Amino acid sequence: MKKFHPFSLLIKFEGYPPAVIASVFMHACLIVFILGRSVERSEFVAIEAPVIVTASAIDLNPQRLRRLERLELERVDEARRREQAEAREREQSQQRERERLEAQQRREQEQAERLRQEELARQRTLDEETERQRLAQENRAREQEQERLLEQQRLAREQSAREAQANQLAGEQLIVAQYAGMIKQAISQNWQIPPGARNGMVAVVELQVVPTGEVVGAFISESSGNTAFDRSVIQAVERVERFPELQDLETGVFERNFRSFSLVFRPEDLLR
To answer: What is the architecture of the domain spanning 190-271?
Structure first.
């Protein structure tokens, strides 16, 4: 059989109601004991006057001195640590300020460098544009000069061509006049003027000739008004029949001047 223990009730009821009852009971017993006990005079304790200890005795206490010295050393160490911490904080703050100023200075330098580069780029662009305009002006001036020279050369060629053409025309006209004179002379040698011809009569005969000089056609393009006079001119051409001298002419000269040409006949020309 398990033995009963009074404290088992405290455990059973988690210590609350039994503990309160036990505490009240014990305090009541203690109050009865104090109040019921008689005290003798001999049991009174005499209180003597306190002994005043001088400060020198306190100061001379080695333990107190060591403790004060330790406290002073701790205070000095703490002050030194605080000063070192404050110095480190000031140094860190100064370092941060220096870094901030250096960063600001770098930013300002970078900004100034960026502005300088932008200004250089703008100046390069301006210089390139100025150079481009200058080159364009020079190119235009060269082109205009070339055009002027080409125009002068063209005018000179045209002038030379005109002069050459004029010279050629003059030479050709001279040749044409010579050959026309020979043709007219050959016809005049075979021309028999009719009795009724008088001075002042004019007959224009149109001749058609091939490059061999052979006459393939002849007719009066302008009549003298005298049929016998006009017929005598046609008969003179028919007697000649061919002008071999025309074979010596260049084809162009012949085609321009002798393929088809006119001759004027007057009675007085034959008489001279």
So the answer is: 2-Layer Sandwich (3.30)
Residue boundaries of the structural domains of the chain? 190-271
User: What DSSP line would sit under the chain, residue for residue?
Assistant: -PPP-THHHHHHTTTHHHHHHHHHHHHHHHHHHHHH----GGGPPP-PPPPPPPHHHHHT-HHHHHHHHHHHHHHHHHHHHHHHHHHHHHHHHHHHHHHHHHHHHHHHHHHHHHHHHHHHHHHHHHHHHHHHHHHHHHHHHHHHHHHHHHHHHHHHHHHHHHHHHHHHHHHHHHHHHHHHHHHHHHHHHT----TT--TT--EEEEEEE-TT-BEEEEEEEE--S-HHHHHHHHHHHHHH-B-GGGGGS-HHHHHHHTSEEEEEE-HHHHH-
- Two tokens at 192? 């028999």
pLDDT digits (tens, 9 = 90+) for 135-169: 999 999 999 999 999 999 999 888 888 887 787 77
Average pLDDT on 184-195 reads 87
Residue type, 214: E
Return mean pLDDT, the chain: 82
Which one, of 186, 191, 183, 182, lies nearest residue 236 by Cα? 191
**CB proximity list for 221: less than 8 A, separation 6 or greater:** 204, 205, 206, 262
Give backbone dihedrals phi and psi of 165, rounded to 5 degrees, phi first: -65, -40
Q: What is the mean pLDDT of residues 99-118?
A: 91
| Token reading at 220 | 């009066």
The tens digit of pLDDT for each residue in 238-256 reads: 898 888 888 888 888 888 8
